[in-house]
Amino acid sequence: DTEVTQTPKHLVMGMTNKKSLKCEQHMGHRAMYWYKQKAKKPPELMFVYSYEKLSINESVPSRFSPECPNSSLLNLHLHALQPEDSALYLCASTPFISTDTQYFGPGTRLTVL
Amino acid sequence: RKEVEQDPGPFNVPEGATVAFNCTYSNSASQSFFWYRQDCRKEPKLLMSVYSSGNEDGRFTAQLNRASQYISLLIRDSKLSDSATYLCVFRGSTLGRLYFGRGTQLTVWP
Lengths: 113, 110
Prior knowledge:
The complex is a heterodimer of chains A (113) and B (110).
Chain A: E1 4-7, E2 10-13, E3 18-25, E4 31-37, E5 44-50, E6 53-57, E7 64-70, E8 73-79, E9 87-94, E10 103-104, E11 108-112
Parallel strand pairs in A: 2-11
Antiparallel strand pairs in A: 1-3, 3-8, 4-5, 4-9, 5-6, 7-8, 9-10, 9-11
Chain B: E1 4-6, E2 11-14, E3 19-25, E4 32-38, E5 44-50, E6 55-57, E7 60-65, E8 70-75, E9 84-91, E10 98-100, E11 104-109
Parallel strand pairs in B: 2-11
Antiparallel strand pairs in B: 1-3, 3-8, 4-5, 4-9, 6-7, 7-8, 9-10, 9-11
């Protein structure tokens, strides 16, 4: 299994909803990443986990809450989002945080109404 | 000043053409360099790493110029399937932190 999977593919939510994005990989990678990408913009790093511990938080608002329950799984919990949070949310993984080549999942396209 | 500067294009070229993209970076401590390809509404995928000595993979050639702080990507004999956005990416001194250019959009027409 050499891929990163993300669910759901698409998500529409209201500003008062609570939802979660899920990312999974079974490559034995120990570093996992969340990115946000707006149309015609590059991916922006949000969070990095290494060995299930948060290593980097790029000053992301608290309405985004990451969680890494085990080495294969990375969640992003969403609460009280704004319409400007609508974007493609990409998960990526690497064997270690020191490994440069990142493997991206297909992303979750989020729309906040 | 942005960490990475990349011409967004678009570049529109006929099949068979040769096209080149450049990308400049501001952080002289940058350690590793890459070109990623992103198709419309898809995730980025690694196209190739960029080495100081230059490297080639089929029709694609990547070069790094540390003195002038830029990397380049040359595509020869363009195919329709090369149409995509090409992102230049580098890693600075912080592990796990990649810097992405805004991407150059390429359209190859028949």
